[in-house]
């Protein structure tokens, strides 16, 4: 049997046969799920495409460029030579799995020893679990990490394009996810939207949750003017993402590809993204009615663009046992920088 020389993603509406030494998946352009495609780029050594005047193809090639995956025209005269020049990619030490919750297929990644305490991590708006690979790799040294792609994002399905879930509905869903995979003692963690979901689920799961670890969490009402908030999200945060972190040049294009893929995935299904954004900006009134008694570590950035200090002070009043940890960076620092002194998580 010939040894595989690489894994290819093929973008064409036709069935294409490649030499047996290449493994590949054929994605038809007339029904392209950008979330699934983005996940495949993590494993792909190259993208082969059939040239056409197709908007989805142009966007797919842009995502490949952001993810640093070479693209090859199927009709190229030097196709055979270019296939031979493909360099196979080393996959990071994560396991990729899926499970069905409420008839919804949920892809998730795991890392670390199963002998360690279980930690569930929930990603932020527009991201996916793998966006946080730098953080998850650090956490896996202390915990058995389980990180799903939440519904509407990444490879996960879109349950209802007309009315995206509220934070409370996400909380119900991940509570079922945790019950199915977690056992009787777990740690919940999340960033931004994922932080709000983790806090919401902690109330629902009660004594099952032994600790909360939140990174710049959403959930409290944002009082910042919407024009100012829009500027901070699209301009100031982008500037910080490019300049504040040591690994920005390497990780920012891939994070941008993750965000773009989730946005395109939902735009294609005509999801009402504004509904979900409004749910975050207005605050989730369900879990904020209850005091969270679970021991909590809250990481807050000194250059946080979206949640000002008044916001975080209001947020802290909803917890009866909380430790605040100030870190250097902006809202997305944990995507681009290593966690300093991670042993604080197990104290």
N/C terminus separation:
52 Å
Order of helices and strands: EEHEHEHEEEHEHEHEHHHEHEH
**Uncertain segments of ≥5 residues (pLDDT<50)?**
none
Based on DSSP secondary structure assignment, what is the total number of beta strands?
12
* Overall pLDDT confidence: 90
What's the overall geometry? Answer: globular
The level 1 CATH classification of the largest domain is Alpha Beta
Q: Explain this structure to me?
A:
The protein is an alpha/beta fold and 347 residues long. Helix content is 36%, strand content 20%. The chain is built from 11 helices and 12 strands. An 8-stranded mixed β-sheet has the order 5-6-8-7-9-10-11-12, with helices on both faces. Strands 2-1-3-4 form a 4-stranded parallel β-sheet. Helix 1 (34-43) packs antiparallel against helix 8 and helix 5 (167-181) crosses helix 6 (193-205). The protein starts with 5 loop residues before the first strand and ends in an 11-residue tail after the last helix.
Describe the structure in brief.
The chain has 347 residues and is an alpha/beta fold. 36% of the residues lie in helices and 20% in strands. The strands form two sheets. Strands 5-6-8-7-9-10-11-12 form an eight-stranded mixed beta sheet, sandwiched between helices. Strands 2-1-3-4 form a four-stranded parallel beta sheet.
Task: Describe how the helices and strands are arranged.
Blueprint (H helix, E strand, L loop, with lengths): L5 E6 L10 E6 L6 H10 L2 E4 L5 H12 L4 E3 L5 H6 L10 E7 L2 E8 L6 E5 L10 H7 L4 E5 L18 H15 L4 E6 L1 H13 L3 E7 L10 H18 L4 H21 L4 H10 L13 E6 L7 H8 L5 E6 L5 H4 L11
Parallel strand pairs: 1-2, 1-3, 3-4, 7-8, 7-9, 9-10, 10-11, 11-12
Antiparallel strand pairs: 5-6, 6-8
Helix pairs in contact: 1-8, 2-8, 5-6
């Amino acid at each position: 049997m010939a040894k595989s020389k690489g894994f290819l993603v093929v973008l064409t509406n036709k069935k294409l046969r490649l030499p047996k030494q290449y493994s590949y998946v054929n994605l038809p352009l007339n029904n392209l799920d950008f979330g699934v495609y983005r996940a495949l780029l993590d494993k792909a050594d190259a993208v082969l495409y059939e040239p056409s005047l197709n908007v989805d193809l142009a966007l797919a090639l842009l995502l490949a460029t952001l993810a640093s995956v070479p693209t090859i025209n199927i009709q190229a005269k030097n196709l055979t030579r270019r296939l031979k020049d493909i360099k196979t990619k080393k996959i990071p030490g994560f396991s990729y799995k899926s499970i069905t919750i409420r008839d919804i297929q949920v892809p998730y990644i795991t890392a670390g020893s199963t002998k360690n305490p279980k930690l569930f991590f929930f990603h932020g708006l527009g991201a996916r679990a793998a966006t946080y690979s730098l953080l998850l790799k650090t956490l896996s040294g202390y915990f058995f990490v389980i990180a799903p792609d939440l519904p509407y994002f990444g490879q996960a399905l879109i349950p209802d394009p007309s009315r995206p879930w509220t934070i409370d509905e996400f909380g119900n869903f991940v509570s079922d996810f945790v019950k199915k995979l977690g056992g009787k003692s777990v740690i919940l963690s999340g960033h931004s939207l994922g932080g709000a979901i983790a806090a919401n689920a902690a109330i629902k799961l009660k004594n099952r949750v032994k600790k909360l670890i939140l990174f710049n969490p959403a959930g409290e009402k944002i009082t910042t003017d919407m024009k100012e908030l829009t500027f901070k999200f699209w301009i100031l945060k982008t500037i910080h993402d490019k300049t504040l972190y040591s690994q920005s040049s390497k990780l920012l294009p891939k994070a941008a590809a993750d965000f773009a893929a989730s946005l395109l995935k939902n735009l294609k299904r005509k999801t009402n993204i504004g509904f979900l954004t409004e749910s975050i900006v207005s605050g989730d009134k369900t879990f904020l009615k209850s005091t969270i008694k679970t021991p909590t570590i809250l990481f807050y950035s000194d250059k946080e663009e979206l949640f000002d200090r008044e916001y975080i002070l209001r947020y802290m009043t909803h917890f009866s046992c909380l430790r605040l940890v100030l870190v250097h960076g902006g809202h997305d620092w944990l995507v681009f920088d290593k966690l300093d002194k991670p042993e604080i998580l197990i104290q």
